[in-house]
Design goal:
The chain has helices at residues 4-15, 18-29, 41-54, 126-146, 170-175, 228-249, 308-325, 349-362, 377-382, and strands spanning 58-63, 77-84, 87-97, 115-117, 120-122, 151-159, 186-189, 197-202, 204-213, 265-273, 293-302, 330-339, 342-343, 367-371, 389-391, 430-432. It is of the alpha/beta class and 439 residues long. Helix 1 (4-15) crosses helix 4 and helix 2 crosses helix 4. The longest helix has 22 residues, at 228-249. It binds zinc ion.
Length: 439
């Protein structure tokens, strides 16, 4: 049974921060951390640093030097903050990425204006995931005010580059030892998944470049050459006939949402064959040549029931079959990156704590989901070796909400530090996706 007076005190402390939560979310949105290229990373890290230093956190600014995209013009800055409680205990870490994707066109609001209108905040990154970052800060501040002598420690991080793989963010920090099980025992990533959903992990991914090779010749006498594009066409035909149907039939026990993603998938990200695209402004004709090279980037998403080796081998087998049918067929496969699937066990402490808080505070049955794409949990799991990690945060990719209340079941200790939210008024301070004007 939750301790009612403790619960009420925490709920009141969070309610009292309503305006602060809105203002904090707005301030974060107004720092335009667009990635790529990685704008204003230092600015947002210093903002969060100032805020948390005032709240009793020790803070560390960490630049991920030498990681993809890091330069003196666009340094990959991260912030890690830690607040000790009054006694020994576990550390709960809230990790949010501070970067946002480009704005695109068609906005009816200033994407970095963070305008509050009719109970909604409009702006790039409101849901994904500056609302989550603000919520974790507010929840942790309220928790520490009500329970200053809590056992353990709370950490909050704002990290770079999640939208481009997280190599200059969580991956770098994990390599530096920030996410080892010795240092951190529970990790919550407040990505916008909605208030009753606990995201346990994600499918695996394998990116690779497949190149078919040919022999250049004059385009008027293609029989003297060997077309890499026609070889690539044969590869795609084989994929259409065999691979795509086979992947669609493969099902998983992972509760991936949306349900259409509960299968293996393959996307052809790009395809290029023959001579390079002409530069902008060149308006001449292309030369008549037989393509000596064609390249395809593939994005293969796979299930926990599949092994990375089998996924790769399946593609090699397909290419070998094509080779056996086409005398001059030659190919190369270059691995770009791969991340195995991950799924935190449902009986892990962070999962059971958040699940019980969702039931007691929201009165809802928690829903367990798995993400079709990867997010920073991949680095915490694989590099940090810390498997007690979930994504749980306010809002949804389709528009969402900001949490307004928290749970304080003493049995959950600080794992519940604002992790469970009561959604009292759905029209209050709701971050939404960009509003696109219909032409
Ligand atoms: Zn995100």
């Amino acid at each position: 049974m939750p301790n009612t007076s403790r619960h009420d005190r925490l709920a009141a402390a969070i309610d009292a921060r309503r305006d602060d939560l809105i203002a904090l979310t707005q301030d974060l949105i107004r720092i335009p951390t667009v990635n790529p290229p990685g704008e204003a990373y230092l600015e947002i890290c210093e903002y969060v640093q100032r805020r948390l230093a005032k709240s009793g956190y020790t803070t560390q600014l960490v630049r991920a030097e030498g990681t993809p995209g890091d330069s003196d013009r666009y340094p990959r800055w991260n912030l890690v903050a830690r607040r000790e409680g009054g006694g020994r205990g576990d550390t709960v870490h809230f990790n949010s990425h501070h970067d946002v994707v480009e704005t695109g066109s068609g906005w009816t609001f200033d994407p970095f204006g963070a305008e509050l209108k009719d109970g909604r905040i409009y702006g790039r990154g409101t849901c994904d995931m500056k609302g989550g970052l603000a919520s974790s800060i507010i929840a942790a501040e309220a928790f520490a005010e009500v329970f200053p002598q809590f056992d353990g420690a709370i950490e909050i991080s704002a990290t770079a580059d999640e939208e481009t793989g997280g190599f200059g963010g969580v991956a770098y920090l994990a390599k530096q030892g920030f996410f080892t099980p010795e240092r951190v025992q529970h990790v919550i990533i407040p990505e916008p998944l909605n208030k009753e959903r606990i995201c346990l992990g994600h499918r695996g991914v394998w990116w690779a470049e497949i190149e078919t090779k040919g022999r250049i010749a004059h385009g008027s006498m293609p029989f003297l050459g060997d077309s890499a594009i026609r070889h690539m066409g044969a590869v795609i035909a084989r994929m259409e006939d065999e691979l795509f149907p086979a992947l669609a039939k493969r099902t998983t026990a992972m509760p991936v949402v949306p349900p259409q993603a509960r299968q293996s998938t393959l996307n052809i990200n790009s395809l290029h064959g023959g001579q390079p695209e002409p530069e902008d402004g060149f308006d001449g004709f292309p030369a008549p040549v037989v393509a000596h090279s064609a390249r395809m980037i593939i994005d293969r998403r796979y299930l926990i029931e599949e092994s990375p080796e089998a996924v790769r081998q399946e593609m090699i087998d397909l290419l070998e079959t094509v080779k056996s049918e086409r005398p001059e067929f030659r190919y190369e496969v270059r691995d770009l990156w791969t991340i195995p699937p991950t799924m935190t066990a449902k009986d892990s402490p962070v999962v059971t704590a958040v699940a019980s808080a969702i039931s007691s505070v929201l009165g809802l049955a928690p829903e367990y989901v798995v993400s079709p794409g990867t997010y920073d949990q991949k680095h915490i799991d694989r590099i940090g070796r810390m498997h007690n990690c979930i994504a749980y945060g306010p809002g949804t990719a389709q528009g969402g909400l900001i949490p307004l209340r928290a749970s304080a079941d003493p049995k959950i200790h600080i794992v519940s530090a604002g992790l469970t939210y009561r959604w009292d008024n759905p029209t209050e301070a709701i971050p939404v996706r960009p509003v696109v004007r219909k032409n």
